[in-house]
Amino acid sequence: MLLINHSNLVLECGTDEAGRGCLAGPVTAAAVILPKDFKNTVLNDSKQLSEKKREFLKPVIEEDAVCFGVAHVFQEEIDSINILNASILAMHKSIDELSTKPEYIIVDGNKFKPYKDIPFETIIKGDGKYLSIAAASVLAKTYRDLYMNKIHEEFPMYNWRKNKGYPTKEHREAIKKYGITKYHRKSFRLLPEQLKLDL
After folding, report:
1. Residue 82 is assigned to a structural domain of this protein
2. CB hemisphere CA count around 82 (13 angstroms)
3. How many domains does the chain contain in total?
4. Which residues of this UniProt protein bind a divalent metal cation (predicted)?
5. pTM of the model as a whole
6. Does residue 68 lie in a domain region?
């Protein structure tokens, strides 16, 4: 698949998030402005890359990018405003972190809210089409994974180092056995047969 730099006319940032479907931990977003001549043959949508390749790409993107920003929105806020709004908020916060203001924003997916007065475009499967969105997807995923590895130490029985908070069979079994932690999203259906959770 050929990933391209979307625009040579404006300062454009790509943005994407990771962790939307997780039962625990934050939703994490990144925004990246790449130089116009940026090329990389390894870079792709982070879901298509092995953890090793993502780890390899992270410092390459950080070094070569014009600028980048990363932001977490945590479980309390996800529960309060819902995951879609939290994902968009995380993307907005990651754009806030950019040291250079973008003139145009390209977003992975089909949902976004206007950011200041900057024009934007939503692109379905954009992380597989445009380099800046692919770069953002890699940073969002690697920064979120680092965070999940850190909180794994506190609650190793959920094995977040491996499942990163996603609803794997093992993660659900641990919830069944140990209950939930402060990192779990209480608004999510944490167990398939769950009607309500005793909090």
Report:
1. yes
2. 2
3. 1
4. 16-17, 108
5. 0.92
6. yes
Distance, CA of 98 to CA of 160 (rounded, Å): 29
- Is 3 domain-assigned? no
> Residue positions in the annotated binding site for a divalent metal cation?
16-17, 108
Q: In sequence order, which residues have a C-beta less than 8 Å from that of residue 56 and are 6 or more positions away? A: 42
Using alpha carbons, list the distances in angstroms from residue 161 to 39, 66, 158, 166, 192. 31, 31, 9, 11, 22
Residue 150 CB coordination number (10 Å): 12
pLDDT digits 0-9 by tens, 165-196: 999 999 999 999 999 999 999 998 888 765 45
CA 118 to CA 22: how far, in whole Å? 30
Average of per-residue pLDDT values in the chain: 92
Q: Count other C-beta atoms under 10 Å from residue 172's C-beta.
A: 17
CATH assignment at residue 21? 3.30.420.10
Interacting residues of 52 by C-beta distance below 8 A, sequence separation 6+: none
**Which residues carry a binding-site annotation?**
16-17, 108
| Strand ranges of the sheet holding 12-18, from the earlier edge strand across to the other edge | 67-73, 27-33, 12-18, 104-108, 120-123
Structure tokens at 64: 């070569």
pLDDT in tens, 52-88: 999 999 999 999 999 999 999 999 999 999 999 999 9
Domain coverage including residue 70: 12-152
